[in-house]
Amino acid sequence: MTKRTNAFIRWFCMSACVLLLATATAKVPLLVSGAALGGALARDAVFPFLTAREAIAIAAILEVGVALRLCRPEWASSRQRLWWIAWITSLLALYRTARALLPSTGPCPCLGAIPGSLGLSDRATSAVMWCILSYLFIGSVSLLAMVRRNSVEPTSECS
């Protein structure tokens, strides 16, 4: 890989780290109060065996865990860090899709009160979250393809 590609991967991973830490931080007030989740015993729409608070806590823990792996390049190779980003965004996108397909689940509470305090509608908040997930997923998969293409050595068929 070129120095330019390595620099871009580092920049991308750090931007993913910042976004994941921001979304995990946005979940903290929900975990503390639980008010926006419908109370402490309200069930999650996608995972009814979990309370909404437990589902939010699991998401926050996963986001922080992946963010920590991303912000410390010595803990993982570029390829591993890009796989982590693709993995977490796949999980989050699947959850958001399942939530959207369920009847009357309401908006995803993943950003807590931040959208309301910024004056964003539920539709605008959803669009912003899909843009973030798209950026992370498309970026990680594209960079993984680039890393793979640059690291594969051509083999000789005639030996």
Overall pLDDT: 84
Describe the sheet with the most strands.
none
Radius of gyration: 18 Å
Low-confidence stretches: 152-159
Portion of residues within helices: 55-70%
Write down the overall geometry.
Answer: elongated
Q: Report, as a whole number of angstroms, the end-to-end distance.
A: 27 Å
Structural class: mainly alpha
- By DSSP, the count of extended strands is 0
Order of helix and strand elements from N to C terminus:
HHHHH
β-sheet strand percentage: under 5%
Summarize this entry quickly.
With 159 residues, the chain is an all-alpha fold.
Give a description of the structure:
- The structure is a single chain.
- The chain has 159 residues and is an all-alpha fold.
- The chain has one domain (3-149).
- The protein contains five helices and no strands.
- Helix 1 runs antiparallel to helix 2 (52-71), helix 1 packs antiparallel against helix 5 (122-151) and helix 3 (78-101) packs antiparallel against helix 5 (122-151).
- The longest helix is centred in the first third of the chain and has 31 residues, at 3-33.
- 24% of the residues are buried.
- Mean pLDDT is 84; it is low at 152-159.
Fill in the keyword field for this structure.
5 helices, 159 residues
Topology, please?
Blueprint: H1 3-33, H2 52-71, H3 78-101, H4 114-118, H5 122-151
